[in-house]
Amino acid sequence: MPEMIGIAAVAANGIIGTRNDIPWRIPADWRRFKSLTMGQVLIMGRKTYESIGRALPGRITFVITRDRMWRAEGVRTATSLEDAVDQALQLDPQIIFVAGGGEIYRAAWDRLSGLEITEVDQKPDGEVTFPEIDPDEWLETDRESHDGYSFVSYRRRSPRESAV
Ligand SMILES: NC(=O)c1ccc[n+]([C@@H]2O[C@H](COP(=O)([O-])OP(=O)(O)OC[C@H]3O[C@@H](n4cnc5c(N)ncnc54)[C@H](OP(=O)(O)O)[C@@H]3O)[C@@H](O)[C@H]2O)c1
Question: Which pTM value belongs to this model?
């Protein structure tokens, strides 16, 4: 079974988004997102897709929406997280990345086996948050500190029988 990994940039106050955008610009975070996800499968919510505004090259992306008529060039649509995961599994991926936003991280939370978090040293205003990373549940396995942000990896302490 593939790993299912949540990938997000999260501010010190838990904020990940505001007005369907991200409240900071950190090019190194985008580069890391690109290098981790290249060649892999992504699952994201329709609002996150709209905020990016295009299909990300080199990745197969499933966009979750309740609107059965919704289409966009270069991405596949799914009507629920379960539908996205079922479709993704047919591709036999090594990793499925869950790329947000807030609704989709929460829907996928119990299935995630790992987290790749960019901790952003800011406390911006915003209305979309990341779920709490409970240290009883998540083990920090790697931390790379930079000026203004850190790249942090987590593993779930008791792996789920099946991540997906
Ligand atoms: N900092 C980061 O790393 C990061 C990463 C990703 C996103 N973001 C930010 O997060 C914000 C977006 O997050 P969000 O929580 O507002 O939206 P979202 O999770 O990206 O998308 C929500 C949409 O997903 C669809 N959806 C959700 N649950 C569903 C279900 N059970 N079945 C079918 N469809 C479902 C619905 O689409 P329809 O309305 O079309 O039905 C819903 O409106 C933006 O500000 C974005 O910039 C930040």
Answer: 0.97
Ordered by start, the domain boundaries in the chain are: 3-156
Q: Is the CB of 68 under 6 A from ligand 1?
A: no
Bridge partners of residue 5, in order along the sequence = 97, 114
Q: Are 103 and 80 in contact (CB under 8 A)?
A: no
Cβ–ligand 1 contact at 101 (below 6 Å): yes
Task: Return the structure tokens found at 19.
Answer: 């007005």
3-156 CATH: 3.40.430.10
Tell me what pLDDT residue 160 has: 61
Strand 128-129 with 15-17, pairing: antiparallel
- Measure CA of the first residue to CA of the last residue in the chain; give whole Å: 7
